[in-house]
């Protein structure tokens, strides 16, 4: 998917009626690094020791410019351990240049247009008839948010669930929610 198309989708596909996530002086630390609200998603992610695989994948997929765009966007950011939990060889295969379109689809299946805070995702999931808040990612794949107890879970298209381990990491161009699973499109 071309970077221009991604940026256009971000600008046009933001869910209606969502208030922007406000910058906070007490933004959580991620991967041992402060996450500054004045930095964009990529500028913060490169400092997180827990997201080195994600950063390498974003670079290999040629999505850096898209994730540095104005947004707003919500990113469900898998930690290194989530990539390590994939079948052996999966990450190495995805990082090969000939697999760039597949890698782009996987990564854009973690991005939703608009600022969706953790409380907003939980509120919408609780208010829905089926207990899930359904979203469409930039890849076109669906994601769903569900509240289990006090935790927020994100389901991919295949029904695999990832728990949000750190929510509401505000960025200059959106918000990141750290997840413990790679969310895969079909």
Structural commentary:
It is a single chain. The protein has 186 residues and is α+β, with helices and mostly antiparallel strands. The chain is 31% helix and 25% strand. It has one domain: FAS1 domain. The chain has 8 helices and 9 strands. The strands form 2 sheets. It has a 7-stranded mixed beta sheet. A two-stranded antiparallel ribbon has the order 1-2. Strand 8 and strand 9 form a beta hairpin.
Brief rundown of the structure:
The protein has 186 residues and is α+β, with helices and mostly antiparallel strands. Helices cover 31% and strands 25% of the residues.
CATH architectural designation: Roll
| Level-1 CATH class name | Mainly Beta
Rounded mean pLDDT is 88
Category by helix and strand content? alpha+beta
Radius of gyration: 15 Å
Main beta sheet, described? 7 strands, mixed
Unreliable segments (pLDDT under 50, ≥5 consecutive)?
A: 1-24
Count of extended strands? 9
Annotation field: number of helices: 8
Strand order of the largest sheet: 4-3-9-8-7-6-5
Which range does the strand content fall in? Answer: 25-35%
CATH topology: FAS1 domain
How many independent structural domains? 1
CATH superfamily: FAS1 domain
What gap, in angstroms, lies between the N and C termini? 16 Å
Oligomer: single chain
Topology as H/E string? HEEHHHEHHHEHEEEEE
User: Share of helix among residues?
Assistant: 25-40%
């Amino acid at each position: 998917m071309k970077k221009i198309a991604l940026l256009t989708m971000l600008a046009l596909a933001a869910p209606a009626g969502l208030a922007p996530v406000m910058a906070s002086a007490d933004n959580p630390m991620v991967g041992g690094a402060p996450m500054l609200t004045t930095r964009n998603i990529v500028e913060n992610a490169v400092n997180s020791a827990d997201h080195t695989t994600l950063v390498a994948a974003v670079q290999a997929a040629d999505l850096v410019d898209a994730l540095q765009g104005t947004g707003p966007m919500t990113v469900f950011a898998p930690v290194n351990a989530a990539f390590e939990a994939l079948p052996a060889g999966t990450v190495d295969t995805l990082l090969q240049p000939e697999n760039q379109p597949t890698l782009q689809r996987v990564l854009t299946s973690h991005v939703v247009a608009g600022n969706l805070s953790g409380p907003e995702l939980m509120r919408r999931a609780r208010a829905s008839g089926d207990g899930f808040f359904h979203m469409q990612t930039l890849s076109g794949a669906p994601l769903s948010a569900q509240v289990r107890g006090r935790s927020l879970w994100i389901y991919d298209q295949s029904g695999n669930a990832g728990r949000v381990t750190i929510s509401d990491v505000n960025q200059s161009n959106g918000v990141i929610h750290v997840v413990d699973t790679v969310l895969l499109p079909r």
